[in-house]
Amino acid sequence: MAVLSISGVTKVFPGGAAAAVSDVTLEVADGELVCLLGPSGSGKSTLLRMAGGFETPTVGTISIDGEDVTRTPPERRPTGMVFQSHALWTHMNVFKNVAFGLKLRRLPSTEIRERVEAVLALVGLSGYGNRHVSQLSGGQQQRVALARSLVLEPKILLLDEPFASLDQHLRERLREEVRDIQQRLGITTLFVTHGQDEALSMADRIVVM
C-alpha cells in the first residue's frame, strides 16, 4: 500500500512555551501497524494530526511514498482518519455517513452503493445502512467511523484513540477486529493510544513518547 515517512518534525503552537512535538523521525513501513504510546500531553495525537494534515509542522517534513505532503490539506492526502469522538453526522443514516466522501468525489451511484455495502460487511454492519446513527451503540458508531475512512481506500490509516470511550470488553473485541481488518487489507496504519495493553496487543512496533 504505502510508506509513511516523518522526518525531523517539530510542532510549536502559537504562544506555546515548549514544543508539543520535538524533532521526531519515524518511518511506518508498507502494511505495518505502529502504535504511538504515551501519556496525555506527550504529543502523540499532535503527531498523528500532522500526518493527517490537520496540523502543519513548524519544522520537518512528512511524506507518503516519497511524495512530500507536509502542507497538503487533509482532503487531498491519501489518508483516512478515525477520531476518538466518532465525528459522525447525526442527521444522516449509516449509509449516507459512509458514502459522504465518495459523493464528494462524484462517483456513480451504483459504485458508491457497492463500495459502501462492501465496507459495511467488512466492519460487521451488513444491513445497517438505513439505521440512524442515534440508534447505534458506541461500538457500532465506531465501526461506522472506521467504515467511512476505509471506503475511501486510503493508503494510510490514522487512528486517534478510537476505543477510549468504550467499555473494557467492547474495547478488547473491537481492537481485535480492527487488527484483523488491518492485516487483511494490508493497510499501513498509525495508531495512538495511552494504553500499554492495547499497544502490545495490536502493534507490529511501538513508539514510546
Structural summary, described in words:
This protein has helices spanning about 45-50, 95-105, 110-120, 140-150, 170-185, 195-200; strands at about 5-10, 20-30, 35, 60-65, 65-70, 80, 155-160, 190-195, 205-209. α2 (about 95-105) packs across α3. The protein is globular, with a radius of gyration of 17 Å. Helix content is about 35%, strand content about 25%. It contains six helices and nine strands, in the order βββαβββαααβαβαβ. The two termini are about 25 Å apart. The strands form two sheets. The chain has a five-stranded parallel β-sheet with strand order 6-7-8-3-9, with helices on both faces. The mean pLDDT is about 90. α5 links the parallel β7 and β8 (about 190-195). By secondary structure, the chain is α/β, with parallel strands linked by helices.
Summarize this structure briefly.
With 209 residues, this protein is of the alpha/beta class.
Structural class: alpha/beta
Low-confidence stretches: none
Mean pLDDT: 89
**Number of E-type strands:** 9
- Name the overall outline: globular
Q: Mind telling me the C-alpha Rg?
A: 17 Å
Query: What percentage of the residues does DSSP assign to strands (E)?
Result: 15-25%
* Helical residue percent band: 25-40%
Number of helices: 6
- The N- and C-terminal alpha carbons lie at a distance of 26 Å
Strand arrangement, largest sheet?
Answer: 6-7-8-3-9
Order of helices and strands: EEEHEEEHHHEHEHE
What's the story with the biggest beta sheet? 5 strands, parallel
